[in-house]
Amino acid sequence: MADIKQGKIKSRESQLSTTLKDQLRCQSCGLTPLCLPVGMSEAETEKLDSIVHRNTPYHKGDHLFRQGDKFKGIYVITSGSVKSYYINKHGEECIVGFYLPGELIGLDAIHNRVYSCSVAVLETTSACEVPFSQLQSLTSEIPSLQHQLMCLLSKEVHNDCEMVAILASHSAEERLASFLLSLSSRYKSRSLSALEFNLSMSRTEIASFLGHAVETVSRTFSRFQEQGLLEVNRKQVKLLNIEALADLGGNTLTSSTTGFP
Amino acid sequence: MADIKQGKIKSRESQLSTTLKDQLRCQSCGLTPLCLPVGMSEAETEKLDSIVHRNTPYHKGDHLFRQGDKFKGIYVITSGSVKSYYINKHGEECIVGFYLPGELIGLDAIHNRVYSCSVAVLETTSACEVPFSQLQSLTSEIPSLQHQLMCLLSKEVHNDCEMVAILASHSAEERLASFLLSLSSRYKSRSLSALEFNLSMSRTEIASFLGHAVETVSRTFSRFQEQGLLEVNRKQVKLLNIEALADLGGNTLTSSTTGFP
DNA sequence: CACCTTATTTGACTTAGGTCAATAAGTATT
DNA sequence: AATACTTATTGACCTAAGTCAAATAAGGTG
């Protein structure tokens, strides 16, 4: 809870061995094609790398930051996953998003310099912390960094619009199908299996995100399984009929763009 | 429908008289504090102004662009309002957002250079068109433009997160209350009345946006009126009890941040 | 002005999904 | 390993919201 405050970050970082650090540099990171260094030269990537903090892995329940904290920088998940949530006035946790490796966190805090959500780790997770003031200085030196940051912001806007589309679709089946397909395609673009993956979030967290009761999520999973659309065993999911799921959950921007009138 | 295609933009523009054009320049625009020129010098603002296209007003049903169109630039509403929507696979119109004066449209298309939604005008509306390639060139000359563009992108991400929070809140009352409060605060920050305004969108459009049936939206309006929370007559809305509405719809990021635990 | 079309409201009925409660299957703790 | 604790599933029941249908109101058009 308090373990990411103040100087602790530096102490975490110093625990990492030099060899491990080398493996984690931007230059050798497998997520580079999704991340900030897109289009940057070796030398530029090195400059970016030099401002990035890499802490020791976070553990389930740890927080990257909390709702209301002063904005320091953006985070990129390198492994694991996190949830972004806020506490509503009834004291309930409302989940606004999940982030997977290669995804940027904290972009919404740039404009007012305050994190509007808390971000907690769902499983053992590594993340890069990119101090924003330094990032901003670098952008004036490195045009492609500037460009890529803007593209990533734009992509985030796009993803959020898609999420709005999913949430406005009424049925529980549509929402869950869209959610699973979203995870699937995100895993795929990270060269992970698009058909078989582990849900790092609980049913309760999925329910909160999709705006349903836990029981509804659970029942919908069961129904999908009965219908042969997927196999589910607790956190382990295997999608058996992507097309049928897409038919259900196809109420999204991207899929509708392909079937554009 | 086809009236914004190709050279038509220029012919529209040329119809504007020189005096009218002067009134519409960025330098004298009342929306400047919300828009791109924030933090820019007089000379820089003039440069920005010179790349902006201002067309003759659009009329209800006109499109700024359509889903699938190649990305040309971003638009800023200067008066009136528009809806952003896509057509789902059942051929239904799904509304993803409404935009008011001072709000930027098309930010989600920067990253892949394709508009993912159609944007149609809800009432007589004026908009500035900012060609993106020229805007991008200007950003390298004008650091504060760069910065402001990023802030606006960040703000858009933030707004979208808020929308996700609203849509994940279950009840029709919560959603409609949040929607009305969102409009209210947006009007307020544009120095318009926060308590009394005109809905430029139809009940059907509100329903589509909030993911409800039209009848539900209509009934919820009626219930709010019975409870004395507002007065509504067709498009005309007068909020009578903002606090009570906020209690209902307070499931949002910003309001929860104030009542932060 | 009369007619037509479209938007909104309201009522009656139905259903998807919420709530409550019990059970089962994992996980963590001692 | 036994215990307690948490998470997920399933059933029974109920309510909010969807659907269908009709009435009303507003706007548009010849």
Provide a descriptive summary of the structure in words.
2 copies of one chain form a homodimer. The first copy, chain A, is an alpha+beta fold and 261 residues long. Chain A has 2 domains: 137 residues, Jelly Rolls (Sandwich); 89 residues, Arc Repressor Mutant, subunit A, CATH 1.10.10. Helix content of chain A is 44%, strand content 18%. Chain A contains 10 helices and 11 strands. In chain A, the strands form 3 sheets. In chain A, strands 1-8-3-6 form a 4-stranded antiparallel β-sheet, sandwiched between helices. In chain A, a hairpin with a 2-residue loop joins β10 and β11. The longest helix of chain A has 26 residues. Chain A is globular, with a radius of gyration of 19 Å. In chain A, 44% of the residues are buried. At the A-B interface, β4, β5, α4, α5 and α7 of A face β4, β5, α4, α5 and α7 of B. The structure holds a DNA duplex (30 and 30 nucleotides).
What is the domain tally of chain A?
Answer: 2
Helix content range of chain A: 40-55%
Structural class of chain A: alpha+beta
Shape of chain A: globular
CATH superfamily of the largest domain in chain A: Jelly Rolls
Percentage beta strand of chain A: 15-25%
The largest contact between protein chains, plus residue counts on each side, is: A-B, 62 and 62 residues
Strand order of the largest sheet of chain A: 1-8-3-6
- Gap between N and C termini of chain A: 50 Å
Number of DSSP strands of chain A? 11
The run of helices and strands of chain A is HHHEEEEEEEEHHHEHHEEHH
- Please give the CATH architecture of the largest domain in chain A: Sandwich
Largest β-sheet summary of chain A: 4 strands, antiparallel
**For the record, what CATH class of the largest domain in chain A applies?**
Mainly Beta
Mean pLDDT value of chain A: 88
Low-confidence stretches of chain A: 1-11, 255-261
